[in-house]
Design brief:
The complex is a heterodimer of chains A (431) and B (979).
Chain A lengths: L10 H6 L1 E4 L4 H13 L3 E4 L5 H10 L6 H15 L8 E6 L10 H11 L7 E4 L13 H24 L8 H16 L8 H16 L9 E7 L1 H5 L7 H7 L2 E4 L3 H19 L6 H25 L8 H7 L13 H13 L4 E7 L3 H17 L4 E7 L5 H22 L14
Parallel strand pairs in A: 1-2, 1-3, 3-4, 5-6, 5-7, 7-8
Helix pairs in contact in A: 2-6, 2-7, 3-4, 6-7, 6-8, 8-12, 11-12, 13-14, 14-15
Chain B lengths: L2 E7 L3 E8 L2 E9 L4 H11 L1 H4 L5 E5 L3 H8 L3 E2 L1 H12 L5 E5 L4 E5 L5 E4 L8 H11 L3 H9 L12 H13 L4 H21 L8 E4 L1 H5 L1 H11 L6 E2 L7 H10 L8 H12 L15 H12 L13 E9 L3 E8 L4 E8 L4 H16 L3 E9 L3 H8 L3 E2 L2 H12 L5 E5 L4 E7 L2 E7 L7 H11 L4 H9 L12 H13 L4 H21 L11 E4 L6 H11 L12 H12 L10 H6 L3 E6 L8 E6 L5 E4 L18 H10 L10 E4 L5 H15 L2 E4 L5 H7 L10 H15 L4 E3 L19 H13 L7 E3 L8 H12 L8 H36 L2 E6 L7 H4 L2 H6 L3 E5 H4 L15 H13 L5 E8 L5 H14 L4 E6 L6 H20 L3
Parallel strand pairs in B: 1-4, 4-5, 6-9, 9-10, 11-14, 14-15, 16-19, 23-24, 25-26, 27-28, 27-29, 29-30
Antiparallel strand pairs in B: 1-2, 2-3, 6-7, 7-8, 11-12, 12-13, 16-17, 17-18, 20-21, 21-22
Classes of the chains: A alpha/beta (431), B alpha/beta (979).
Amino acid sequence: MASEDRVLFTKQMKKDYTILVPTMLPIHFKLMIHIFREYGYKVELLENAGKNVVDSGLRNVHNDTCYPALLVIGQMIDALESGKYDINKVALLITQTGGGCRASNYINLLRKALKKSGYGHIPVVSLSLGMEKNPGFKITPQMMNRIFYALFYADLLMLLANQCRPYEVHKGETDQLVDRWAERLTQEMKGRGILSYKKVKENYRRILSDFADIARAKQEKVKVGVVGEIYVKFSPLGNNNLEEFLLSEGAEVVVPGLLDFCLYCIYNILMDYKLYGMGRFKVAAFRRVYRMLVRKQGDVIRIIKEQGTFRAPGYFPHTVSLVKGYLSHGVKMGEGWLLTAEMLELIEQGVPNIVCTQPFGCLPNHIVGKGMMRLIKQKNPDSNIVAVDYDPGATKINQENRIKLMLANAAAIAQAKQPQEQSSEKQLQFI
Amino acid sequence: MKMTLGIDIGSTTVKLVVIKEGQVVQTWYERHLSQVRSKTLELIQQAKEQIGGDPFHIAVSGSAGLGVAKAADLPFIQEVFATGEVVKKSVPDTDVVIELGGEDAKIIFFTGGLEERMNGSCAGGTGAFIDQMATLLDVTPGELDELSLRSEKIYTIASRCGVFAKSDIQPLLNQGARKEDIAASIFQAVVDQTITGLAQGRRIEGKVLFLGGPLYYFKGLQRQFVKSLGLTEETAVFPEMGRYAVAIGAALYSQQSGPQLTYDQLVERLQRAATQAPQTRRLTPLFEKEEEYEAFCDRHAKASVPLASLEDYQGDAYLGVDCGSTTTKLVLMAQDGSILYDYYSANKGNPVEIVRRQLETLLPLCQGRITIKASAATGYGEDLIKHAFNIDAGLVETMSHFKAARSFNPKVDFILDIGGQDIKCFKVRNDSIDSIMLNEACSSGCGSFISTFAQSMGYDVEEFAKLGLFSKYPVDLGSRCTVFMNSSVKQAQKEGATVEDISAGISISVVKNAVYKVIRASSAQELGENIVVQGGTFLNDAVLRAFEMELGRPVVRPRIAGLMGAYGAALYARELGLSRSSLITIEQLSQFAHTSKSTVCGLCGNHCNLTVNSFGGGKRYISGNRCERPLGRQQSEPLPNLYRYKLEKIKALVPVEGWRGKIGIPLGLNMLENLPFWFAFFTKLGFEVILSGISTRSMYIKGQFSIPSDTVCYPAKLLHGHIETLLEQGIKNIFYPCMTYNFDEKTGDNHYNCPVVAYYPELLHANVEGLNNVNFIYPHIGIHKRNTFAKKIREELLAFFPELTLRECRQATEAAYEAYEQWMADVKAEGRRAIDIAREMGKKIVVLSGRPYHIDPEINHGIDELISSFGIVVVSEDCVADLVEPAKVQVLNQWTYHARLYNAAKYVCTQPDMQLVQLVSFGCGIDAITTDEVREILESRGKLYTQLKIDEITNLGAVKIRIRSLLEAVNERERNNGV
């Protein structure tokens, strides 16, 4: 059994401790941080990056551990050592997903690393579906309500920003609009009481019309989907600024939202009951949550379609159905069947060019990433997927070269679809 | 007059083609020795005449071409894409292209959905790999090719990556295997790597075009490819212009991109590019000033050993020989410990010859005046050398290093040795070795990496290392395996780093590898007060300096850092207290003639590749054997070995003919433990259960082509072969369930299987073509829920066997659970019996801990038998895990198999006669967590921790060293404690 003598985050600590949070999704985390602040927590988002983070990770984590663990723990210890924080008045927050993947162990590896570096007294708070509890860290229903909408807002902002950024006429306009809305939403979510859903939907419409107003160049760009292990997929620190690179190569980046991952986690609980009869008592509650989330996702999609400028995200129940003939919904470790589903969803949405990001040696990805690619290719001959491994030793040039190959193929596939003008080109005897 | 130019800048060469009117008019091909930009410029200047004064289109391609293209503002085309374009135009009926370059391998499938792929970042080099291997054999790449054509047999060389292959080849060399055979095996390894690493489940068939330098030059490589892929002269095409395909592709592409240039404009742009400032991450220089270096040298000069004159000395002396993986060292030591004679040389593929020549010089010099009282050998080639020259004793290299270091500084508490192929380090506490850490096969290649790299850049190693001392901006090359370093070097070269910067960067990387990967220290204090560093690699001042900088404190490097193994062996020889050495005499030496030949042992199912060395006069030494049988020794009653027991128990399950027909089960991963359950279940239902059998190498090869992920663990990869075996037998129903959850043994926080074990059936379904034609039954099923199991499994099976009744399923379920429980109880009982026998006989016990599937001899490579051969009783972790209260661990303990590890470790700590050895399959991500935890459990209670990493590798040399080190350390501790 895991030892229970961990350092608790007490009520007293809530008053004067600073909680450090590692970055993953810039927009999402920014919104959520503000909510925590509003409810009396001193929270700070870690933005340190670069050589020190990786070195500190290498020193403190077993080098064969997955890259996200190495980075997150490296980032935290690097921050503690930076001298910016009073190490007797600081706590760390980390997400914990649970399940048969190594990722469930990040929090324990972090604690081990802290102990080894002489920071054993620092409390680590788990942000999870009730895996570990702390007296000083409680998410109240009101907070939950806000975090919940923050997720929807952030997914929408990310979706629209990705569709605007490559085409914006005035450079930086998209990001400015994202910042403006983040600020505005933060202000709106202040105060007490439950948020009005009517108001939320109104905000969706306003956000949509604001983004639609951004001046965009009318040009066709190649769309590239990004899927993969959740951390390296989303975090610029984890994927060597993949989005930036793809943009610089003239692509439009398509990234499925965070909501899908949350829905996937809940769906797995339903599957556990269905397949193994596990969790009989909690399943009804989760089913309700699932239905509610799906309904709200449906609302977002409807509103985007009504507005008419932007491509809407996939509807989760449809995403779920896509993996039929590929793999079972019983595959639930790591990103599990969702990763395969997201690739199929992208292909269906007309984004056959995909970067599948994974930490080097990621166990679930052997199955749901690389393991499914042959079948995906067979059933969707136009698909163009490149698997890219991330780890402290992998060089950017190798990664970029492979992505460039995928991009070159994407252009060729797009060209092949154009009506052929000069197909009668003579055969040349070069080799 | 349409002219186009294509430049392909690869990791080792630059290629230039000039095309006029759809005809290649001239080509250039040269090694760039990492001077990428200046070499490119040089080639263009050479082509001045051909190019003339007219404007032309140009494009750049290749892995090192991107930087040049950017800096010189030239159009760039990705190299695999370029190849694809050229092949589509020139040889449109091609089905598959295989292109091997300096460090990249590429494959393009044209038929059945265009797919272009490059090797993953772990797949190691190809051309550069062959170069490295040639250096290892001390031949030129061309000679390597010639050798390979005269091969008689192929050895199994791990094909995953260069480092692995190297650690397979080195022992073969040391055992005296024929170079011809090794050469061909190297090419075969490249072929295997291409199949698993690149094809990833797609068949390489139809017309195959082979491109790139290595496939053009090496006839032996061509031969292995043709043979392995079953191609004919018509279907395997090796075009004359194969080396230039990428450059031609670039030239073709250039027509649709960018404006035209003239010769002068191009030269001007390239000149500008050659002088641009570098951007890679740079590190602090090793030495800022010359004076710093002098002070450093003075300090280290103090650490020397007394020398005595061989010409004048009279009296007793002791000989130590250290036959390492890449170098052979020899020390003749006087009675007082001073050194009379020493020798250090590269093996050049034949250590026996080197030692023979040394003895030929040394023995006559000693005659009459110096008496060699005793001799000892150590290192990889210990056995070979010992037998060849009648050396008195052998000792494991870790012990000899320890002895040498201690004689040097009795207070030493930490020793780090970086040799040609190994990093070893040990902590010393209470005068004995406290913990031993050795590098895994993956990060090895440390010292020899520097030297092969130096050679590839056209320097000898000493000269190369010196260059780094005063580099202003050492490049940061990361700290993982050498393959990654190669590509980091490539990146640095792309950005114009100098040879000096790269040299310094490599030294720093080797050190980081040792500190982060092997020692895994978080602070210098952790290592100890008195640190001694040794091994040939530390003779390199740049490495030594980098180490001190990394630790932030000075260390001691003995002057004889490279000879410490041999010196330790000499010290050991002195301890032997012999009155006369059995060492070969001058007369015998004159009769000495060494030949070796290889053969396959047929005495059991292991089929070990034996190397038989003859030394003249009927003296023989056999190596490569896993057991004593081929040596013709009498076998006494074998000691209990739970691995053998469990394997035999599985083999004893004989299919019972059933009225429902046959159902096939692949015998891999968790099935090696769950088989009794399913066997009983299906037998009871009236099925004849057909098993795929115990894994073999050839079974692996059979399924190799459909493996989609080359970094998954070997036990999982074997499943492809098991499935193919069942398909071959015409089995129509194959059962292999997905099991997220394992049995709940109530010892952890949860009872998962790892993701690979749990879902490998899904991967097989998606990748093994043949499964489409049979009923592949792979339901997600939970055996942890006994009460609902019968109902659930029936629901899953009904689709295939609609007549199954619930009643039948209930009965079968009962039988299954009973059989499984009985089986596990038997194993535990046998474990207890083994422990009792061990105690009766006074034998030591090793708890060989891994996963249930580690009993597979193709996975464990006979390690259990090897340990057993040291007179040790081997039990498995599951026999002792239940003997203690479940261990409290610091990590989330949620996998059934891994919970057993922690508990076994906890139990071993309570038993003075037990040691734990952990087997870890390469690529097992979960063991990154368990190894640290098991180590902590053991070390916090004063036990030694030993980890054995296993993969496809069949080389047991390194394993032997670890096991012997463990046993020696335990013995030494017992002696010190007065047991």
